Amino acid sequence: MNILAYLEPVPFHTANEALFYCYRAFDQLAWPQEMRGGFFHDAPGCEPAPESRALTLAILAGIAEQEQCPLDQLGANTLGAYARALGEVGDVLTARLPGLDAERGDALLRQLRADVH
After folding, report:
1. Residues of the chain scoring pLDDT < 50
2. pTM, whole model, 2 decimals?
3. Model pLDDT, residue 77
4. CA 11, CA 85: separation in Å to the nearest integer?
5. pLDDT at 52
6. What whole-number distance in Å separates Cα of residue 1 and Cα of residue 7?
């Protein structure tokens, strides 16, 4: 499944929020059915944007379709593989952000670590 294809056409903040809620959904799947909460709800008044919600549901439906079974029937290894794929897609999208300079960030981290020692 090409998760990046779902996320490339949308703004970064929408894609990032959808990735977050996909991870939350995977976390919920580890719990028994009767203990699962809604993965879209952190706290009262804290709701994802409608675009992020729709995108999250589309990605999760795409995974279920790809695997030809409901998400709650997927094994831990399969969910783990999709979680890693989500992380890789997040890295790709982040690397594309304008003004992001990975070398400068690495240099700053090295400097901070040197200052600590």
Report:
1. none
2. 0.80
3. 92
4. 19
5. 93
6. 12
Nearest Cα neighbor of 3 from 77, 62, 69, 71 is 62
CA pair distance 80, 67, nearest whole angstrom: 14
DSSP state of 32: -
Could you tell me the two tokens for 98? 């304008």
Please name which of 47, 50, 80 lies closest in space to residue 63, comparing C-alpha atoms.
80
Q: What is the pLDDT of residues 41-59, one digit of tens each?
A: 766 667 888 999 999 999 9
Q: Which parts of the chain fold into alpha helices (H)?
A: 3-7, 12-29, 50-67, 76-95, 102-116
Residue of 43, 50, 53, 64 whose CA lies nearest to 19: 53
**What's the CA gap between 89 and 23, in Å, rounded?**
13
Cα torsion for 58, 62, 68, 73, to the nearest 10°?
A: -60
List of residues 6+ apart from 60 with CB closer than 8 A: 22, 25, 71
The token pair at 9 is: 């056409």
